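Notebook entry, cofactor series.
This is the third protein in the set we're modelling with a bound small molecule. For this one the ligand is adenosine-5'-diphosphate. I'm keeping the input format identical across the series so the outputs can be compared line by line later. Sequence and SMILES below, as received.
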Amino acid sequence: MVQFSGVPVIVLKEGTERRQGRNAQKNNIAASIAVAEAIRTTLGPKGMDKMLVDSLGDVTITNDGATILDEIDVQHPAAKMMIEIAKTQDIRVGDGTTTSVIIGGSLLKSAQELIDQSVHPTIILRGYRKALIKSKDILKKIAEKVDSSDKKILKQAAITAMNSKSIVGVREPFAEIAVKSILQIVDLRGDLKIIDIDQIQIIKKEGGSLSDTELINGIIIDKEIVHPMMPKSLKNVKIALIDTPLEIEKTEFDAEIKIQSPDQITRFLEEEENMLKRKVSAIINSGAKAIFCQKGIDDKAQSLLARENIIAIRRVKRSDMEKLSRATKAKIITNLVELTLEDLGASGLVEEKKVGTDNMIFISECSDPKAVSILIRGGLEHVVDEAERTLNDALCVVRNIVHNPYILGGGGSSEIELSKQLRDFATTIGGREQLAIEAYAYSLEVVPTTLAENAGLDPVDLLVELRAKHDTPDGKAMGVNIQTGKPSNMIEEGVIEPLVILMQAIQSATEVSSMILKIDDVIAASGGMKAGAGGPQMPPDMD
Ligand SMILES: Nc1ncnc2c1ncn2[C@@H]1O[C@H](COP(=O)(O)OP(=O)(O)O)[C@@H](O)[C@H]1O
Ligand SMILES: [Mg+2]
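Returned structure with ligand:
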């Protein structure tokens, strides 16, 4: 409500909730910090897992920041923005989600302290922006260039990413799989390396143990051969991909057929069968020896194909059809009559194998050598699911280094070094902005502190020791050794991370915390503040 020449003007609808000024800010900051606090205990190798139960009672057990935040139903609009940090981090670089959110929380906590000391948010924002720009320069200088084809380095980074996940005893083989599959799909276009992780097919099958997880050069389809008389395996196979049914087509509901004699019925049925036969003959004549059909294949067609020793698989998912098409170079055909040799793809081996209790089809030695699949095995659904998330982090980390061959030490070492150099930079700025840049620098130490805390170590003592180490020459890689509780050289320990992870983490943490700091007015439609995930969201207040 505003006063205009003494007349009150009602701008907002009845029931609208409004929070303004300090109050709005404080509330937003508190909610955002709460999100960061919620996942703090999951950070690092000694971090704990969260058990999430959705409204249907389905349970997810995970350590993955992005997954946790995605599953919990956060209502506060500012808290939702924190979740965006994790999502952005996950999409852009695939790891470092918890790190990014807790840095975001820490930046806001420090900002609140400054606000309490009467530093205006605009000054904090300016300081944070300067700090971010400087941080990126510093990180680029701290980072070490590596050889992106050095498998040892890639494996170490993959293992570091998997250290915090509860896949006990299989980090080595998983790292090996991640490195091999990424190196296999790298597409060199001049100097540019294109790596599309989606090209790696991940298939999960409960049963067996995680150590049975394997890398397969080719595609796996979770289906069976349709007919028992068909061969179980064929070598050097021409492959047809069909997205039309191999079935006698049912007449439409409203079609009317007038039949006057039993003769006509026989002829009608024969004609139907002939149509199907013509389709099957087209396949046989094309030279295809294995067909993958997106739709159904009826008994008649099955036995006709089996007689020709052709392997047939039906009801293949569209996404699998596309993968098959890419791997075997076969075209997906709708009109069978026009099927020619040119439409067919090729594979060195198509076979049905038993995985656990089910049969699966393996299409290997494909025309496209970049077709790779990972078959994840594990005793329980939860285990297999978390293994997939873990592998995904490892794949992203390896991809990041192959893309951009720079690494940083993990275990909080890079955050401490960055913090130190940023504090030196702050002194050159002076004034209140210096306070903000210093606050930014100290906020970054939340990473080593939390790693230590989660490992049951005394974070204060350790931080003092670490800072002292960073003041010595060659101290930049000193981080938290969670085994000994003492500072260690993380790069020598093999605890390394792609540069882009921390770069992206500070980027999105700074952006979102700045956005939250800038809001001084929250106007929510009636019920908006209480709405669930799908409810209205407060738009960020941009300038
Ligand atoms: N062996 C280790 N010793 C110390 N820190 C480690 C080790 N392995 C991983 N870390 C650290 O754990 C942190 C990542 O933890 P994680 O739970 O995966 O969070 P995020 O979601 O941010 O990736 C990083 O700071 C990384 O350097
Ligand atoms: Mg991680």
